[in-house]
Records
---
Amino acid sequence: MSSSKTIDNGIAFSKKQEQVISLLKHKKLKRINLLEGSVRSGKTWISLVLWAMWVATQPKNACFLMAAKTLTALERNNLNLLVSLVGADNFKFSVQSKKATLFGRRVYLEGASDARAESKIRGLTLKGAYLDELTLFDEDFFVMLLSRLSEPGAKLFATTNPDSPNHWLMTDYIQRADDGELDFLRIKFLIDDNPYLSDEYVRSLKAEYTGVFYERFIKGEWVAAEGVVYPEYANNSKCYTVEKPPDDISFATVGVDFGGNKSAHAFVCLGFTKGFKSCVVLDEFYLKEQISPERLSQEFVDFCKRQKEKYPLYEAYCDSAETTLIQGLKNAAMREHLTIDVKKAKKTKIIDRIRFFNSMISQGRFAILEKCENVHSALCNAVWDESKPDDVRLDNGTLNVDSLDALEYAAEPYMKEMISKI
Ligand SMILES: Nc1ncnc2c1ncn2[C@@H]1O[C@H](COP(=O)(O)OP(=O)(O)O)[C@@H](O)[C@H]1O
Ligand SMILES: [Mg+2]
C-alpha cells in the first residue's frame, strides 16, 4: 500500500491524491478532469479538496455547479464531506433551495439522473462544475453542462467508477480524449492507492464483488459483461445448496413474475435470517403454460398458504406491468384471509439487482433449498447478452429469466438493509 503524508494545511493525502493536488499547483489541470477507478480509492475525497482549492482562486462573481445522481446522494456523499474538509464558515448549503456558497462563490446544486435534469441547467453560465459518479448521469445533462461551461478557463471536475466500454462516457469522451480530440485529463485510482482503509476492510470489500463487477469496481477496468452472470454460483453451486431452511428465518417475502407467450409464471419465496445476515430461497413455483387468471390466483394462494405454515410471510411483490393480474391476486388473498399484502414490485435497475445477488453470493450470505431447481438452474445458466450495449441478461426465450425476476422482486425491498449489514 502507498504511504500518506501531511501537506501544508494539516490535511493528510495519499501519494495518489498528492499527484492530483500537484497538477493544480502546477497549473496542469485541463478543461475536463476525470478521477476514475476502483471504489473507496479516495477519488471523491480528493476531488472535493481539489474543487474547493480551485474555486477559491476563481473570480468572486463567477457561478458554479455541483451535481450527483440525486440531490440526496450529493448531500450524503459530497456536501457534508465538503463542510468537514473546508469548515462550515467556508461552505454553506441548502439542499432545499439548491444553493450553496463556497469561499463566498455562488454554487448551484442539482440531481442529474434523468433526461429532464438537462432542462434544470439550461441558460446558466458557469465557470466550473463538480460531478460525483459521472457514469450514473444522463448524457443529455452532461452535454448541456459542457455547453454551459462557457466562461474562459472554465473547468469540470468529475469522479466515476468504470462501466461498460460501450457507456457514453467512454465512447463519446474518454476515447476521444485518448485520441487527443478533447482537453481532457484522466487520472486512475485503485483501492491500494488508499492507505486510509484497514487491511480487513479492503479484504471484505474485495470479497463483495465477483465477475464483471470485480473487474470494474475493484480493478478499475472498463470491461464488458460477458459470459455467465453469476460465475461464483455457477461454479460452486453446491456450496450454496442446503437441505433444510436455517432456524433463524425472521421473515419471508414472495416475488411473482407473470408468464406471457413464451415466458413462465414464477413465484419465489425468499427468507431473510435474523439481523439480515443472509437470504435463503425457500420455495418456488414455476409453470410454463397458458393458464386462466383464476387458476393463477389459486396457485398463488396455495403457494402462500404453504409458506405461511412455516415462515412469517406478509408481503408479495409482483411484476408491476400486470395491474389486472395483481388485482386478481389481491382479491384472492383477501377472499382467503391470507393476510398478505400484495404489492407492485419496485423494479429497480436490473444491473443493481444482479450486483446485489452476486455480492450476497460472494460474501456467503446466499443459500437455496435443494428443491428449488428452477431458481438453481436459472442462476447457473444466466448469461450476459453480448449483442446489447448495456449490461443486460440474455432474454431470448430459451433461458429462464422468470425465476430470476421473481427472486429479485422478493429481495428488492430489503436490498438496502442487506447491503448495509456488510
Ligand atoms: N486523504 C484522506 N484522509 C483520510 N481519509 C481518507 C482520505 N482519502 C480517502 N479517505 C477515506 O477513504 C474512504 C474512501 O474514499 P472516497 O473518496 O469516498 O473513495 P471513492 O470516491 O474512490 O469511492 C473515505 O470515506 C475516507 O474515509
Ligand atoms: Mg466516490
---
Amino acid sequence: MDKKMSRKEFLAMGAKTVLAVAAVTACGDLIALGADTKNKINEMTVGEDNFITSRAELEKQKALNFVYKGKKSILLYNDGEIKAFENICTHKGGPSKLKQDKLVCQWHGAIFEPLTGEALKGPAPKGSKLPAIELEEREGSIYVKPVKAG
Ligand code: FES
C-alpha cells in the first residue's frame, strides 16, 4: 500500500508533530517544576549563638528545618519531646519531612521514627539512623548544644 501524500496532508502532519513536541516539552517542564516544588524545604541557618527557635514556635509548627555547620537538619516536637537530627537520608541523602507522626524522605519514601531517627522502612538501610543533634533549652529558647573541643 503505497499512498502518496498531498502537500496539504504533509503540512498538516508537520503541524501535528510540532504541537506534539511542544506539548511533551511543556509537560516535562511542568513535571520538573512540580518535583522541584515538592522537594523544596524552607530552612534557616543557625548562627554563632546556636539559637534555633523558641519552644512556643516549635510547638506550633511541629517541625523546623535548619542548617547547622553546613548540614541540613530538622528540629521536631513530638508530645513534649524535642529532638533534632541531621536531615540527610541514610539511603542517598534526601531530605525528610514530618508527615503525621513519621519522618518521610522526599526522594524515595524511606520512613524514619521522629523520636530516635531510626529507619523504619526502606530503601534506607534497616537499623540505620539519622545522626542526632544535641540540644539545650534555656528560658523557652532551643539551641544546638555546642560540642566541646578536645
Ligand atoms: S534518599 Fe531517602 S529514600 Fe532514597
